[in-house]
Specification:
mainly alpha; elongated
Length: about 120
């Protein structure tokens, strides 16, 4: 039983590594829009909420959008919203809305507006 459990754990780790590698590659080789599109896709495809791949994609999305917000680059944010139609699904927004009010308003000030604009742009 221990050997079987160990093999299953090793398999799960290898599966998670296979999910992470494309995320790391996209992060380094794509332009901003294509990298974000890939990260949204990776976030939505990874159903395991505790998985490293999903966490990595989520953090890349949040940190990239926050960098744009903090730099007050409204043109790039507008361009991002137009070019990213169809990439945001409700599950990402739902997860963001579950964050504490303090986190949404202090750490991620402005993020909710960008995410809502992304969602509206899809209709």
């Amino acid at each position: 039983k221990i050997k079987k459990s160990s093999l299953e754990t090793q398999f799960d780790v290898k599966k998670e590594m296979m999910r992470v590698v494309p995320i790391l590659i996209a992060r380094q080789h794509g332009d901003l829009i294509s990298s974000l599109q890939f990260m949204f896709k990776a976030f939505h495809e990874n159903k395991d909420d505790g998985g490293f791949a999903k966490m990595l994609a989520r953090e890349y999305i949040l940190q990239t959008i926050m960098a744009l917000i903090n730099n007050e680059n409204k043109n790039l944010i507008s361009h991002l919203i137009n070019d990213m139609k169809g990439t945001l699904k409700v599950d990402f927004l739902h997860e963001f809305l579950s964050y504490s009010e303090e986190e949404k308003h202090q750490r991620y000030a402005g993020m909710q507006n960008v995410l809502l604009e992304l969602l509206k742009a899809q209709s």
